[in-house]
Amino acid sequence: QLQLVESGGALVQPGDSLRLSCAASGFTLEDYTVGWFRQAPGKEREGVACLRNSDNETYITGAVKGRFTMPRDDAKNTVYLQMDSLKPEDTGTYLCGVWPGTPFIAPVYYCTGHVSQNAETWGQGTQVTVSS
Question: Is residue 41 pLDDT above 90, yes or no?
């Protein structure tokens, strides 16, 4: 059974850093495209970063570009979301999802297109709150 578990969320101050983890079990994460999404109260779920497994091409949404990265550790079957210079508008529940790997779909479409709705599975989410 495919399972994803997110962790690392916390209450932090503006300007702080956090590293979220998305750990997979029941399957090999490097065989899948992985995406980080976030949802704030009253807002639609937003694709933050998506990593295509075939070549590690990564899409980062404009609101976090230059502040967030998406490293991976295949030995730990885990993908991370490194978040630096956090802002209050980064507050939300962060979830990871996976799609069967293919080199024919650019990662931007997993984060922003209808493809995002067809994830193989999602984690339960981890809460990030940025507040002074």
Answer: no
